Amino acid sequence: MSLEIIIDWLQAALRWAAPLIIVSIGEVYSERSGVINMGIEGIMLFGALTGIAAGFYLNSLWLAVIITAIIGLILGFAVAYLTVSRRTNQVVTGLMINMVSLGATDMIFSMMSETRKARVATFPAIFPSSMTNIPVLGKLLFAQPISTWVALILPFFAAYVLYKTRWGLNVRAVGDNPKAAATAGLSVIKIKYQTVVLSSIFAALGGCALSLAEVGYFSAGGMTAGRGFIVMAACVVAGWDPVRTALICIAFGAADAAQLRIQTLSSTIPYQFLQMLPYIVTIIALTIMVKRSRVPKTWGAPYDPKDV
Amino acid sequence: MDENNFALQMQDITVEFPGVLANDHVNIDCKKGEVLGLLGENGAGKTTLMNVLYGLYPPTEGRILLDGKEVHIGSPLEAIQQGIGMVHQHFKLVDTLSVIENVILGIPTKKQRLDLEPAKKRLLQLCEEYELFVDPDEIVWRLPVGKQQWVEILKALYRDCKVLVLDEPTAVLTPAESDQLCRAIRRITADGRSVIFISHKLREVIQITDRITVIRDGKYIGTLATKDATQIKLAQMMVGRPVTIERKSRPVIEDLKPVLVMKNVNAKDDRGIQALKNLNLTVHAGEIVGVAGVDGNGQRELAECIAGLRKPTSGTITINDKRVTGVIADPTFVGFIPEDRQKTGLVMDFSIADNLIMKDYQNAPYAQNNVLQYTAIKKHARDMIRKYHVKTPSEDVRVRNLSGGNQQKVVIAREIDPEPVLDIASHPTRGLDLGAVANVHDTLLKERNRGAAVLFISAELQEVMALSDRIIVLFGGEIMGELNGEDADQEVIGQLMLGHHPEN
Ligand SMILES: Nc1ncnc2c1ncn2[C@@H]1O[C@H](COP(=O)(O)OP(=O)(O)O)[C@@H](O)[C@H]1O
Ligand SMILES: [Mg+2]
Predict the structure, then answer these.
(1) Which of A130, B431, B470, B480 meets the CB 3.0–4.6 Å disulfide criterion with B475?
(2) Is the model's pLDDT at B3 over the cut of 60?
């Protein structure tokens, strides 16, 4: 019985963590190149809505994913244009994008009233249902939707790209010393554009994993509930390492899943307090670990190619 | 001469920054296998010229020829591809990456996978060849600056540069490392590569180069073969007038009135170790007291105690009979030129005008009813710029954009113009070139002749001897000896600096 609860809890933890991990991978790249893409919260919202809407109207999950990625790409170019080309303050720009996204997604959603009640198809599991009968692992892993599997594999791939490829080296160099990168012959602006656009695409896909993996609907009023900010905190806590960031995201997912379970078990603690749990975990992790992680040297700083 | 012999020619290069003509029709050329010295004071435009060559700024005018063919260089990548290597004055290394990662950074390749092993092999070969040894796997920030310089040079050689530019490479090197660099340069040119060696240190330039081009104020002054050059001749070309650090004659001031009186002063340094021991010192009006000594023998603590920035553990300090108990804010009382002008002397991102009123900003006419009066502030700044010959297009320029010498002029103007009774000048000429040094000396001498008491702290023995009326030598926080400035003997001071009493 208790094992059942634990497995159920861990399974939920992974499920909740999956969208966070997907978003965090992009954010790690963006911040490694020096740009804090703070708009991921809003872009996630757009992704969540696009996934649902495209899934509903086109009736195809894969088209929904592709369209979501395209929306992320477009928003990513907007963020990159503002923060990289126009060198606007990255925090303010991000907040602005989040506010606009919150309002815009709510408004668009309210215009598509027919999607309101309908549930669209969600991401399927990739393994045959017979495998879910395998003890422990069956439920924990093989019953998971494809998005969770992507989220579990992605960090390792991302780490490989970051540490073992030319492009990864360029990204790290640009974030730590853009002037050195530029004098070595790299186009700093181009690389920053790439990472920011990439992080926006991942943010949109993460949002779509949130809406399409489990629930199958969009809910107005900010269904991402600060997950974008959690991801940014995870990046800091994990020292901008893809795998460690993913682990932090899983910890957050576990806290979130735990509080939902405690809510159903106990009625003495007001649920608002329980809902705070994941965020408190994040804050504690930040305070404990933040000193130990090494910040990309030009983290959040605008880069002017004319400064040499 | 055969045209084709030139590896590099830059003709009529003109670069204009807002308000500054950094290069004004400058010409340089460099033959294959030659070391060309590019000599000029700080701010003369050497770095700017090389940045043009490296594709960092487009020149407003002029052309660049490589091997006699005109080329267009629009970016560092194009420069690298044309065979130009550059070691910047301020290193361009990503110090969180390893040596080898820095070396291969930015080299175009089809292969996405990072395969460092062949690169390491090649780098080690280059290390052998030029005797510049570094560990390819070491993280750059862990390397001493000298080694970082080797990394920069190896990075350029790895890209097989034909022309290697070294921008003030010896500024960060120890003498032994400088010799090593010299040998490496010989090897580099032996391969038929050319080296452009930038410096404002005459001795080195004469030692290393084959020919020397001098620029001043962004203008081309001339080129001469090193064998025909002398330090004096080069200094003249560089500064535009004869310069020497010689003792200047001065009026005798009778009846000296004590201004600064220190009695039995003890003080600790930042680590809590005793830095000044029972120090007794009097500086009179109309007198320059020079403080000689190897750096770190209590000079900094001495200056800070007098300026009220550090509390002595015991003893008394008085200036004009007033006890020093805390920071002295009155600009007419003490002028303090701190040893690190960029950290303590100036706010680098403030304008010249703002920096000039830093001690006075609360007082009329610069402030009225707590509101800054910019008309008065700017007028004051313009007066100071004229009076102290600060080279700048306007008073609104951030001091960060000034050369070291001009930054020091701003500090001096602020500290000395109110005519304080005591001037403390802590290493005021550090990092300045010849012309700027002479300028500082003149200013301090004028202060003395006006009747100020001047305490001049410097690690440059030549300067202390040229300027001081009286010389004290600090060793281990104590005054080892006191000498008359007129007839001080360099040998004696040298012995005292090392803690020996010469008579023993
Ligand atoms: N980016 C820039 N913007 C404005 N002025 C500059 C810039 N870079 C250099 N300068 C000015 O151009 C002149 C030449 O500078 P520089 O080439 O660095 O001299 P050097 O290397 O000989 O010391 C100086 O007066 C300097 O203040
Ligand atoms: Mg320079």
Answers:
(1) B480
(2) no
Asked if B93 is an interface residue toward chain A (Cβ–Cβ < 8 A), one would say yes
SS3 A243: helix
Nearest CA to ligand 1 atom 17: B45
B156 and B231 belong to one structural domain: yes
* C-alpha closest to that of A288 among A250, A246, A239: A239
pLDDT digits (tens, 9 = 90+) for A224-250: 889 999 999 999 989 999 999 999 999
pLDDT of A128-151, one tens digit each?
888 878 887 888 888 888 999 999
Q: Are B136 and B98 in contact (CB under 8 A)?
A: yes
User: Do residue B190 and residue B309 come from a single domain?
Assistant: no
- Give DSSP secondary structure letters for B179-216: HHHHHHHHHHHHTT-EEEEEES-HHHHHHH-SEEEEEE
**Alpha-carbon span B328 to B350, nearest angstrom:** 22
- B31 — phi, psi (to 5°)? -85, 165
Q: Furthest-apart CA pair in chain B: how many Å?
A: 81
Looking at chain B, which residue has its C-alpha nearest residue A175?
Answer: B94
CB contact at 8 A, B384 and B413: yes
Complex ipTM: 0.89
For the CA of B50, the closest atom of ligand 1 is 17
Which residue among A173, A183, A308 places its CB closest to the CB of B97? Answer: A173
Evaluate whether residue B411 is within a structural domain: no
Q: What is the DSSP letter of B343?
A: I
Q: Mutate one of A160, A183, A299 to test the B interface: name it (highest B CB count within 10 A).
A: A183
C-alpha triplet B10, B15, B21: angle, nearest 5°: 125
Question: Each residue of A168-197: pLDDT tens digit?
Answer: 999 999 999 999 999 999 999 999 999 999
Cα B90 to averaged position of ligand 2 atoms, centre (Å): 9
Q: Which of A164, A177, A183 sits opposite B114 (nearest CB)?
A: A164
Check which CATH number belongs to the domain holding B136 and give it.
Answer: 3.40.50.300
DSSP state of B176: H
What was the pLDDT predicted at B503?
63
Cβ contact B28:B213 at 8 Å: yes
Choose between B369 and B504: higher pLDDT: B369
Interface check for A307 against chain B (CB to CB < 8 A): the answer is no
Residues with CB under 6 A from ligand 1: B 17, 20, 22, 40, 42-48, 401, 403
**Residue finishing a domain among B239, B266, B288:** B239
Q: Shortest CA distance to B97 belongs to which of A169, A14, A51, A48? A: A169
| pLDDT tens digits along B321-363 | 999 988 887 888 999 999 888 888 899 999 999 999 998 888 8
Domain contains B250: no
A223 neighbors A48 (Cβ within 8 angstroms): yes
Count of domains forming chain B:
2
Same domain as B69, residue B152: yes
Least Cα distance to B460 among B504, B494, B488 occurs for B494
| Cross-chain CB nearest to B94 (options A166, A167, A176) | A176
For B455, the domain range is 258-333+420-497
As a whole number of angstroms, the distance between CA A177 and CA A297 comes to: 7
Question: Residues lining ligand 2 (ion), CB within 5 A?
Answer: B 47, 89
B221 and B125 share a domain? yes
pTM of the model: 0.78
Whose CA is closest to atom 24 on ligand 1?
A: B43
**Which H or E run contains B280?**
strand B274-284
Of the three residues B204, B239, B274, the one that is the final residue of a domain is B239
Q: Is residue B504 included in any domain, yes or no?
A: no
Which residue CA neighbors atom 3 of ligand 1 most closely?
A: B17
**Does residue B197 sit in the same domain as residue B294?**
no
Q: Tell me if chain A has a CB within 8 Å of the CB of B109.
A: yes
Indicate whether B213 and B295 sit together in one domain.
no
Find the mean pLDDT for residues B484-499.
84
Residues in A closer than 8 angstroms to B112, CB to CB, are 165-167
